[in-house]
Amino acid sequence: MPAQSGSLPGPSTTGRYTYRAKVPARSQTVAKGERAKLTHALAAHRQLLSHASSAIRTLTAARNEMIAQALEDGLTLATISAVTGENIRAVRTIGLAYDDLHPSALTRGAHVDGLRAKSEQLKAAERHRDRIVNQREALIVTALRTQACDDLELASLTGLTPEHIRRSTRGIARSA
Description:
Structural class: mainly alpha
């Protein structure tokens, strides 16, 4: 089979998939160092986002178990809803998901304090994840404006789809 005339020579600088199509030459305005910094930052944000999402899943599971245990020990739906910030329907659904719990020796105050602390940890983790997402979006915009990466390469670096990249950056002026 003949070699593709538009393929890029050598391996990708990021170790990821390289889009192999005829690509217009990148402008000389972006130095290799700047491009490397952007690709490294995007890869780092992808990993940070993965860690943050994992922490949120862990905290949510722990908080949900605490909610179910508090319901089992007689705390009302309204009290738990007020402490956690979840609506009553969500609290009821969480409580029904755990059917093999036994009453514990914890007091009402201990349940309320524990739920409040775990809910605050969860909110802090969600704020942290949102900051990472905002930073990633800023990096994507910078990469597109400076033509350091195209949509497909950005998708590869961020774990997003090319369509998501295009939708989220629609209306952003790109250098010509």
